[in-house]
Amino acid sequence: MKRIICLGVIACLFSCGNANGDSAAPAACGPFGDSSAAVISQVKPNCGAGELIGPWKDADRIDRYACLYQPKSAGANRKLPMIVYLHPSLFSAGWITQTNILDLQNSVSLTDDPNNVGYIVLAPEGRKTTHYYPFPDNTGVGWDNWYRQLNPSGDVKIGDTTWRENADAAAIDHFIVAEVATGNVDAARIYVSGWSNGAAMGLLYAVNRPNIAAAAVYSGPDPFGAFDDPCQQRPVAGPPGNNAQLQIFNPAARVMHIHNSCDVGGICPNDERMATELNAAGVVVDDVILDDHHRRVYSCTDSCGTDPKAPDKSTASIMGSLIGLGNHMRWPKESTTAMLDFFRQHPLKPTPQESTRNSGARP
Known about the structure:
The protein has helices at 2-16, 167-180, 197-206, 267-280, 318-328, 336-345, 352-359, and strands at 39-41, 51-57, 63-69, 80-86, 120-124, 127-130, 139-142, 156-158, 161-163, 185-194, 214-218, 234-236, 245-247, 254-260, 284-290, 296-297. The protein has 7 helices and 16 strands. By secondary structure, it is an alpha/beta fold.
C-alpha cells in the first residue's frame, strides 16, 4: 500500500508540475545548450558480482568509477563484444541487476558466429548533480545530457571561449579506452545501452562517438530537449546555424529506442519528436513503442501526455501519469533479446581506408 501511495504522489508531481520549483537556475544558452550541471558529489557504486574499476578523476576533480562484468568465456584467447550500460538517474550502476542483460551474458552471441558466446558489460557510474527533470529527480545521481559538448576531439575553442568536453562523456570514454586496452574487446562491436536518463545519455553519446557500433536503449527522454530544459536544441549533421541547433559527429549511428506508449511525464510524444529529428539528421532510428503489456504498438496513449516537448507540467492525467511511471520503472525483459540481436546485426562498419587495406588494393 505504501508503494502505491508513493507512486501516486510521484505521478501527481509529474502531472501537476514541479512542486519544489525549477530544477536549476535558468542560464544563458550557449552553442552546446545548457551550462554544465552543478556537481554535488561523487558516487561509488556497489557492483555486486562485478568488479569495481577506478577511481579516475574527471575534469572537475571528481572520482569516477565503473562496474565491469565479465562472461564465463572471458580470457579464452578471443576478443568479445562489449555493452556499455548507463544507469537511470536516482539509481546507481548496480541497478543493472533490475534488467536481464547480465542474465543473458553467458548464453547469447553478439556476432554471426553462434559459437562465439558471451559479451563484456561495462557500467560506468554517474555523479550527483542538478538535473532539468521534475522533482524528485531535480537533483541526484545521473548523467548531464543538458551540456552537449561531446565533440570526439575533446575541448573546443569558439572565439575566445574554450568549451570543455562534457565530463560524463569523458568518463565514459576513459573506461571504454581502458577496457579496450586490455585486448579483450572486439573494437568493432562496442555497443551502448541505458535506461531513462541513462538512455538519454546513451543516445547522445552514441550519435557523437564514431567508435560506437550501435545503441539500444529503453525509455529515454529526448537528450536534446525535454521537461523544463531552457536550452533545447535540434540535432543536425553539419555545422549548426545557431544555438538552437547542435552538430552531431556520428550521424551514421544505428539506434534502437524502446519506450512505452504510456510513459512517465508524457515522454512518448517527446521520443517520437526525437526520432523524427534524428532521422532528419541522418541517424537511422528503430523506434519501438510498447503498450502496458510490453506488446508493440504504433502510437502514444493520449491520456499519458500529448505535448512533444514533455513540459514540466505534463498534459497527462493523474491516472496516465501513474501508469506511465509504473511502465517506466520496469525494464522490458521480453525485449532484451531483440536489443541484443540488434547489436549482433550492427557491428561497426569499416572506414573506406580499412576496406581498401583489407582488400589488398592500393588507395
